[in-house]
Write a structure and sequence with these properties.
One of its GO terms (cellular component) is plasma membrane. InterPro entries: Leu-rich_rpt, LRR_dom_sf. It comes from Brassica carinata (Ethiopian mustard). A seven-stranded parallel sheet has the order 1-2-4-10-12-14-16, with no helix packed on it. It has a seven-stranded parallel sheet with strand order 3-5-11-13-15-17-18. It has two domains: 234 residues, Leucine-rich repeat, LRR (right-handed beta-alpha superhelix), CATH 3.80.10.10; 34 residues, no CATH class. With 311 residues, it is of the alpha/beta class. The chain is built from six helices and 18 strands.
Length: 311
Amino acid sequence: MSLIHFSRLEFLNVESNIINDTFPVWLSSLPELKVLVLRSNAFHGPIDHTSFPELQIIDISHNHFNGALPSDYFVKWSAMSSLGTVYDQPDLMYMGYYYYHDSMVLMNKGLGMELQRIIRTLRALDFSGNKFEGEIPRSIGLLKELLVLNLSNNAFTGHIPSSMGNLTALESLDVSKNQLSGEIPQDLGSLSFLSYMDFSHNKLTGLVPGGTQFQRLNCTSFDDNLGLSGPSLEEICRDIRTPTTPHETPESEEEEEEEEEVLSWIAAVIGVIPGMAFGWVLGYILVSYKPEWFMNPFVRNKRRRSSTTTH
């Protein structure tokens, strides 16, 4: 039986299988679908326009999806763009029912987090680890309820859309390992909940925005963006020491020569001392025992001459 007939399906997780197929566009016909997890499979091909009015979490990471996403791709994703519903009753705080709770693994702030229960106010989008190209859709800025956004490890080009400055609820942003260029939007520095950002391994240029959110980042968040600069970046990376040049100053050369001379004297002394000690020992032995062959070498010769004369 096809899942398309489960009109009340809210949660679908087929993570870590070997599903080799294109994106299941028919899922957009499920009016109650809130969580979609397709990560770590062999899905491939482009993703056409889809409408997920109730979708709150989508994870299609680590597949082989490719192609460009249209600029208006996220226009009809209503649940991520409208104000979230406040759930005052404890039984309604989490997805599922009182006898069953949905669970999943979500990449958040660079770490894989296992969610035993999924809070209903969570909004997350993970398209990482695919082959998406072209510009990041400007309509991403409509998803004002988004908490986690991961577009890393793709082939996105162009600028980071300034519309991301509208994501006032965003806590985690990862656009690393793409081909993004241009400046980092200054408005990101004013997002008060944004505590994790990774822009590394792109082609970004210009000034790094100021603001408390950026000052809390690690210097590695900007790695491999040679065009980035500014006081904020210097402050963030102030504890990272640049390697010194191999050129030596005259003072250091003189110090090395003095050290070499000292070492030469030490080596000479080390060589002389055993020789002197050996000489002293040998002299002591010769003087103490007075061997006849050493002390009277001429006596033997004299005796030989005397005996010869007698005969």
